[in-house]
């Protein structure tokens, strides 16, 4: 069973492939950058990749403290924002195509579970690892 609701999974498995990842620098300053991502159904994680990922600040930040948030979002016309925010523990997975694997601990979504503007669905989830 997934930590994501059925509606959140439908949203995540749609056409969206751009997200924003937030990490924390060694001086405590937040760092946000757009990234490519995928849902890993085997591990129930969000995996973030990219060109020369191992040379990036986000990679170094995760190596140092392992805390991240990622936001996958879009807006339907005329103004219907939808999003899934995932906060949690992250790890660097080295290999031919290194990636950042995010293990959800807190999930907040809006415009997904309810179409009512401003209605959020938030919960803390038990990490599988």
Walk me through this protein's architecture.
The protein is mainly β. The protein contains 2 helices and 7 strands. The protein is globular.
Features:
single chain; 129 residues; mainly beta; Pnp Oxidase, Chain A; 6-stranded antiparallel beta barrel; 2 helices; 7 strands; 12% helix
Spans of at least 5 consecutive residues whose pLDDT stays below 50 are none
What's the total helix number? 2
- Secondary structure class reads mainly beta
User: Could you tell me the mean pLDDT?
Assistant: 93
Q: Any idea what the radius of gyration is?
A: 15 Å
Helix content: 10-25%
What is the total domain count? 1
Helices and strands, in N-to-C order?
HEEEHEEEE
Instruction: Count the E strands.
Output: 7
CATH superfamily: Electron Transport, Fmn-binding Protein, Chain A
Strand order of the largest sheet: 1-2-3-6-5-4
SSE map:
Blueprint: H1 6-12, E1 18-24, E2 30-40, E3 45-49, H2 57-65, E4 67-76, E5 80-93, E6 99-110, E7 120-124
Antiparallel strand pairs: 1-2, 1-4, 2-3, 3-6, 4-5, 5-6, 6-7
How is this structure best summarized?
With 129 residues, the chain is mainly beta. It has helices at 6-12, 57-65; strands at residues 18-24, 30-40, 45-49, 67-76, 80-93, 99-110, 120-124.
């Amino acid at each position: 069973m997934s930590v994501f609701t059925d509606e959140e999974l439908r949203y995540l498995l749609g056409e969206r492939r751009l997200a924003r990842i937030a990490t924390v620098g060694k001086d405590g300053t937040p760092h946000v950058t757009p990234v490519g991502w995928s849902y890993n159904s085997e591990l129930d994680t969000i995996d973030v990749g990219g060109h020369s990922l191992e040379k990036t600040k986000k990679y170094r930040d995760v190596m140092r403290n392992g805390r991240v948030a990622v936001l996958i979002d879009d807006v339907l016309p005329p103004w219907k924002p939808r999003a899934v925010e995932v906060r949690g523990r992250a790890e660097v997975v080295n290999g031919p195509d290194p990636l950042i694997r995010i293990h959800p601990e807190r999930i907040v979504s809006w415009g997904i579970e309810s179409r009512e503007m401003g209605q959020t669905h938030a919960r803390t989830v038990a990490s599988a690892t």
